[in-house]
Amino acid sequence: MDNTTNTELIEKLYAGGGLCAEEYEQLIAAHTPQEAQLLYSYADALRDKYYGKDVYLRGLIEFSSYCKNDCIYCGLRRSNTKAQRYRLSQEDILECCRGGYELGYRTFVLQSGEDMHFTDDMICRIVSAIKTEFPDCAVTLSIGEKSRESYQAYFGAGAERYLLRHETADPLHYAKLHPPELSAENRRRCLYDLKDIGYQVGTGFMVGSPYQTAENLAADMMFLKELRPHMVGIGPFIPHADTPFAKFPAGTAEQTIFMIALIRLTLPYALIPATTALATIDPIGREKGIKAGANVCMPNLSPMGVRKKYLLYDNKACTGDESAQCRACMERRLESIGFRSVVSRGDCKVKNTDTNL
Ligand code: 5AD
Ligand code: FES
Asked: Ligand 1: residues whose CB is within 6 Å?
């Protein structure tokens, strides 16, 4: 490769069109604080151009902590016998939505482990009950890998958005983070099915996960360019004490924020959440993420009694606050850095991400 400077690469990215894998890798592997600042200011400018100072709030309902999978990094993995398991009933979930609606939320994100107790019929009934009671709200599902037929059925019931992180685009790295029965290939299949069906799709990955290299992160950027999702959620890896990765170091806020800014420059229209994991490793991580290009927050709407049972990683932030407090806290924090929290549906600014802006 020629010796293009990082500054030139950042300028090139800002001018549009993205970078190649080697160029992303160079930027990710080593950059000065000044270069990072330049990247953040461009990311801030682009977020401003497409979304202004609006930050969309989505109410997150973690409705089951049961999971049939055994992802090595995750506190809810089936081998973790210490994890406390719970599941909410349809009525419990509707009650959360009612509370959330009162607080102004117009998007509900239903997330769970891969809990086989919930059949496709049950998921469809839950989705259509929410859509019937709250026709002005969007329902997002985040319930893992399913068949195309299942995804189609949920879509038919009224789910319009689906979140499924690809976790890492490199199949070898994927295999180090997951048990043999899970594959990067099936993840991709799921994501392309979801997009093809017509969902607004969110994907993403962990930053600083065990064995991750700058080359892996560059491959993640290339995958995002290829998939062109509506949303990209990333957060630092944080070890969970009762998993085999307990002794691995957490990803850093700096690394995560740098990746957020790179994503904003690569997919300018994307919805990018400032995640709870980022708030967990840095008390003002969410605010830093927003200033570097993020534009979504997902406060928890789960009932207080189950909050501390949905632990993907240790020391999770915001598990001790009532939904109303969380909502107020988020609004205050956003205002303090000059942003406005918006609870409307907050659709992605492009309907079909295959079309360039
Ligand atoms: N640290 C950070 N993020 C995690 N996730 C799961 N386990 C961890 C962890 N230990 C993320 C995964 C998953 C999302 C719901 O949470 O990326 O897709
Ligand atoms: Fe949950 Fe601040 S956002 S307490």
From this structure: 73-74, 165, 167, 206, 235, 237-238, 240, 277, 312-313
pLDDT reported for residue 357: 46
pLDDT tens string 137-159: 999 999 999 999 999 999 999 99
Question: For residue 318, what pLDDT is reported?
Answer: 84
Helix-strand-coil split of the chain, %, nearest 5: 45, 15, 45
Which one of 63, 109, 206, 315 would you pick to mutate in the ligand 1 pocket, going by the greatest count of ligand atoms within 8 A of its CB? Answer: 206
Task: Give the residue, out of 276, 282, 329, 336, with the most ligand 2 atoms within 8 A of its beta carbon, to mutate for a pocket test.
Answer: 329
Closest to 129 measured CA to CA, from 87, 99, 97, 162: 97
Please tell me the number of the ligand nearest to residue 142's CA: 1
Q: For a ligand 2 pocket test, name from 298, 326, 336, 339 the mutation site with the most ligand atoms within 8 angstroms of its C-beta.
A: 326
- Give me the residue label for tokens 């195309």: 148
Provide mean pLDDT across the span 62-91. 97
Q: What is the DSSP string of 179-209?
A: -TT--HHHHHHHHHHHHHHT-EEEEEEEES-
Position in ligand 1 atom list of the atom nearest CA 111? 15
Here the tokens at position 174 are 């994927």
For residues 278 and 40, the answer to whether their CB atoms sit within 8 Å is no
Q: Is 329 in the pocket of ligand 2 (CB under 6 A)?
A: yes
Q: CA 76 from chain center: how many Å? A: 17
* CA distance linking residue 297 with residue 58, whole number of Å: 6
Kindly tell me if the per-residue pLDDT of 280 is higher than 60.
Answer: yes
Closest-lying ligand 2 atom to the alpha carbon of residue 327: 3
